[in-house]
Description:
The complex is a heterodimer of chains A (157) and B (86).
Chain A: H1 7-33, H2 38-47, H3 90-103, H4 105-131, H5 134-155
Chain B: H1 10-32, H2 40-61, H3 64-85
Amino acid sequence: MRDQRGQSTVEWTGLLLLVAAAFSVTAIAARAVGDGGLPERLACAIAGRECASRRVFTAADFRPLSGMRAAVGVREGPSALGGLATIVPAAAIVEGVGGFVWRHRGTLRRVAVATAIGAGVAATCAAAIAAANAIGAVGCGSAIVIGGFAAYDNARR
Amino acid sequence: MTGPQHPPPARTAVGLAAAAGVVAGAGLVRELTGAGIGALRPAFVALGGLAAVACLFVARRETGALAWMFAALGATLAVCAAAALA
C-alpha cells in the first residue's frame, strides 16, 4: 500500500495555487479596466451632498428601469402597508449592487489585494513562530518586507 | 535525464524569498526617496514569482508548521508579485 502521508498537503497546495492564479487574473483584469472613487463617495455621503449616484432603495420612486419596458414587480397602487414604502424591483437592486461594484472596482481591488497581502504575511509569521527555527525567522522577515512593499505599491496605484 | 524530480530544498526557497525581500526593500527605499523604482519592479516580479513557486513546492514536502509557513509565504509572494505586475 502506498504511503498517503502528505497527500492532503498536495491537494491543499493545488487549491492554493488555483486560488492564487484566479486572484492574480482578477487583479490584472481589474487593473486593466480602471479605478473607482470610494473615498469621494464616502465624503459625499458624510457631507450630505447629492453627488452620490442612483439610490437603490427609495420612498415613492416610480421611475421605470432604464432599458426595461416591463414593470416587473412594480406596484401600481398603494401597498399593504399604506404606501409607506415602495419595494424596489429585484432587478433594480441587482443593478444597483452591480453598478456599485463596477464604479468602485479600483478601490475594491486595492482592498482585496491589501487584505490578501496582510493575511498572507500574518499567516507566514504565525506559522514561522510555531516552527520556531531560523528558516521561519527569515521567511517571516522577508514576508514582512515583501508585503510592506507590495501593500504600499498597491495603495498608491 | 531520468529519475525522480526533487523539489528545491527549503533553504533555496527561503533564500529566494529573502532575496525578493531585499529587492522589495530596495524598491521601497527608492520609491520613498523619490528616485523611482525603475527596473526593480520587473526584477521583483520575476524573483517573487520564482520564490513563490519554490516555496509552494517546498510546502508539499515539508510537514507541520514549516509546511504552513512555506505555503503562506508562497501565497504571499504570489499575491505580491501579481500586485506589482498589475
